[in-house]
Amino acid sequence: MNQLLMNKKTWLFFLLVFMLIYPLIAGQSGYMISIAVMICIYAISAMSLDLLIGYGGQISIGHAGFLSVGGYSVAILASKLGLPFFMILPLSGVITAIISLIIGLPAVRLSGHFLAVITLGFGLSIPQIALNWDGLTGGYSGLSVMRPNWAASDQQFYYVIIVMTVLITWLIHNILKSRMGRAFVAIRESEVAAQATGINVPFYKTIMFVITAFFTGLAGGLYGYWIGFISPYDFNIATSFLLLGMIVIGGLASIRGAIIGAVIFTILPELTSSFIGLTNIILGFAIVIIILFRPHGIISLLDLFNIKRFNERDVIKNEFIISEQKQGGRQRNAKI
């Protein structure tokens, strides 16, 4: 029974079932469904950012700009060109990836705080561009986004977002397990060593930017469809720091950690919204505590539990060997 409960596939199955029946559990409440949707959107964004920072070791603090580009791409393609949903959503990711490529090509020559400044400038510039480019973005008024007829209700579109979240999580997982993912980790550990082993560091750093921007653009597009509106005020520099806080709290270089961070940073503001300023205080305090005492994030607590479980299993095994030897059983090599 304990093995069944500790099996990752079992927990994944229960999580998928819970996500499917969540609207029924929530009583089809629009508010509760909206919280779940925002968790999914932030989880996609946090996993994408973690791919860049946690696995690739590249610092980015302007990630909200990619969300804005994805959201505006959906709004512009839907309102001005009238393209169908199944074309618009992938194109929002592609457009965001192309813009990231333009930024990434010169940025890959930089690292550390120099790269952080470049991405910060990008995150600050996107809202300003959206405010002043009235003809394309609607300026201060923003743009409306119409959902497809077959997913017009909140409950219908909730399942679209669930499917997209599961699909993107699976894709990111497979990327990280591939040769490309191992190259990302090698670059994080040491760019010099990675270069010495034959890894094309500038190429893979560019690929990192493109992949993380593509998935974040999809998250921004889903946000635009869900809210039905996109404006320059939706994603600012505070959103970038919020996403950074998610992966720090949850745990860097961990898909599960990014999801845990997204859950915490989405639900906590809802619980403390009645007290002005309390949310930022709690979140800031939580980040400080995590950095001081659990620098690998909340996910490290689960890993610690697994280590204890394995140690207990070894103790039981060793006790069994000693007991067997005392009873005249055949000798075995044992390290106690």
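Next protein, fold it too.
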Amino acid sequence: MEMSRKLTEMTNRIDTLEQKLDANQHALHDQVVAGLGNVGGRLDELRHREDTLEATQNAHTAPAPAPVPSSPARNSVRKTVDVTTIHRAQADAPPVEHAAPRPHYTVQAGAPDIAILESPQGQPVRVQPGSMLDGWGAVTAITQSGSGWVVHTEHGTIR
């Protein structure tokens, strides 16, 4: 009889502990999901800032047009010469090639000299130094940055 009562008490304690464990797991899951959302938002913000910075730097490196004289009589003659010069320069210059946008990869996991990326199609891609990535070239290094990993390539970094 005593054993039966003790077994019942132990069963009740185990049930209570299982309920607490489930509640703690759900709370932890919610915290992890919220934290990952914050990290993802920060990464998106950093990528946007990096893209904006690159666009600004590219705009600043474009040559400025030459100033035009202010005299009306000289303007008509000068404009003709400038237009001819510009057309001649454009004919001699090689065509401007605009780089195609690089595919968007996201680092999912990493370790020294190995990383798992998510491809633009959502597929996992395993890379290591020497691996080739479309649009990014060869992987040169994989380093840790804080609690995340960074994949360095010939044409930039993937975070």
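About the second fold: The two ends are 64 Å apart (CA to CA).
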